[in-house]
């Protein structure tokens, strides 16, 4: 452990609502079942902004180092860890740890574990140079991987990959991706393309339209211009029947109300985005006679992680990202609040 410094730079949220304060803090020491990862790059997820704003009915640690898309190098490990080596590449994701022995963990629904530890929410995350993760849960990243490019896969990629699985669609069928020009959305389009699923991107503005089409969307609907989202989405599908599934990634409530109307009968509405204080609302009659299914989807388990990363390693997932210094995190949040980010921002922890 000799090369691990005692101090490091981090972005610390000191009070609900922020901002982040760039300052020097102690380098943490891993416990017996943990590893210390020298984070090189971390993606900035909209969840990090929800955490800073205190948007959700789940208590958040304070002061807090946010971030949960951290890719780096293992520099220390606890005495119980023997399946990951110093020098290995690893990723710290939202699910920092879970008990591994409750009913949920035993059935590989680790995100439902009542004792789950959440990076950048209940434990300090990856907007620091050295972060801790439970060895059982850190993502194994193959040697030689571009750490900046894989960072967004660690939350956005895993989450949308899992959401597509939960949607139960087959190759050749159609999914509408709502919020398709954002961080999760751009990756969702790439996973759909890799799986042979038609994807209709729904988002706003020309920049996002361009991005969605370049990510492999079959069609695009601009929610800022559309006078009738339901008709416009259905019109992009085979015989106008509507998509087989809708994946909701948007950070506003309205699209959550619209999806049930345009999904195809027997289709699935998968909720992933979590706008503050939002509710699902759908007419009971239509839901019944159209046999619509509603499904929440929450990150992914360790196997989903392995599979989502494998798509990346095979060169199938290439979504745009912009690298900025860790010092610029507050500016990234400002852009995110305005919905002005096409794709993902990734922070370089050395700058
Ligand atoms: P982002 O800000 O990068 O993207 C959100 C996109 O939604 C933007 O492109 C925005 O233009 C678009 N949008 C806003 N209103 C819209 C509307 N009415 N119709 C269509 N598009 C609209 O955010 P992100 O990082 O991709 O995260 C998206 C959401 O997913 C957040 O709420 C985040 O907390 C959540 N999330 C959930 C999980 C999970 O496990 N369920 C995991 C990660 C993130
Ligand atoms: Zn996230």
TrEMBL record:
InterPro entries: ADH-like_C, ADH-like_N, ADH_Zn_CS, ER, GroES-like_sf, NAD(P)-bd_dom_sf
Cofactor(s) essential for the protein: Zn(2+)
GO molecular function, one term: zinc ion binding
Signal peptide: none
Pfam families: ADH_N, ADH_zinc_N
Enzyme Commission numbers on file: 1.1.1.1
Annotated Gene3D superfamilies: Medium-chain alcohol dehydrogenases, catalytic domain, NAD(P)-binding Rossmann-like Domain
Record-annotated Enoyl reductase (ER) domain positions: 17-347
Keyword entries, A-Z: Metal-binding, NAD, Oxidoreductase, Zinc
GO annotations of cellular component type: cytoplasm
Family: Belongs to the zinc-containing alcohol dehydrogenase family.
Name of protein: alcohol dehydrogenase
Organism: Aplosporella prunicola CBS 121167
């Amino acid at each position: 452990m000799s090369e691990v410094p005692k101090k490091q730079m981090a972005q610390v949220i000191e009070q609900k609502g922020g901002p982040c304060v760039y300052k020097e803090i102690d380098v943490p020491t891993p416990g017996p079942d943990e590893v210390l990862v020298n984070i090189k790059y971390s993606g900035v997820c909209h969840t990090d902004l929800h955490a800073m704003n205190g948007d959700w009915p789940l208590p958040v640690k304070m002061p807090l180092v946010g971030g949960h898309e951290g890719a780096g190098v293992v520099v220390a490990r606890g005495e119980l860890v023997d399946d990951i080596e110093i020098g290995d590449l690893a990723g710290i994701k939202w699910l920092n740890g879970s008990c591994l022995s409750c009913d949920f963990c035993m059935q590989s629904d680790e995100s439902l574990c009542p004792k789950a530890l959440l990076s950048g929410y209940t434990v300090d995350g990856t907007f620091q140079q050295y972060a801790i993760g439970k060895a059982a849960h850190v993502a194994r990243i193959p040697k030689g991987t571009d750490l900046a490019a894989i960072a967004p896969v660690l939350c956005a990629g895993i989450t949308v990959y899992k959401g597509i699985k939960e949607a139960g669609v087959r190759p050749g069928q159609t999914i509408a991706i709502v919020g398709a020009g954002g961080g999760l959305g751009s990756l969702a389009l790439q996973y759909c393309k890799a799986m042979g699923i038609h994807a209709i991107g729904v988002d706003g503005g020309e920049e996002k339209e361009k991005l969605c089409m370049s990510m492999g969307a079959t069609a695009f609907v601009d929610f800022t211009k559309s006078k009738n989202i339901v008709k416009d989405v259905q019109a992009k599908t085979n015989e106008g029947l509507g998509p087989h599934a809708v994946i909701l990634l948007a950070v506003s409530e309205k699209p959550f109300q619209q999806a049930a109307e345009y999904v195809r009968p027997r289709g699935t509405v998968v909720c992933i985005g979590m706008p503050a204080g939002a509710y699902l609302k759908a007419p009971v009659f239509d839901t019944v006679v159209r046999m619509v299914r509603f499904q929440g989807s929450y990150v992914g388990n360790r196997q989903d992680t392995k599979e989502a990363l494998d798509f990346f390693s095979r060169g199938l997932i290439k979504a745009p990202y912009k690298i900025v210094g860790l010092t610029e995190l507050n500016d990234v949040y400002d852009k995110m609040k305005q919905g002005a980010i096409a794709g993902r921002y990734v922070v370089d922890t050395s700058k």
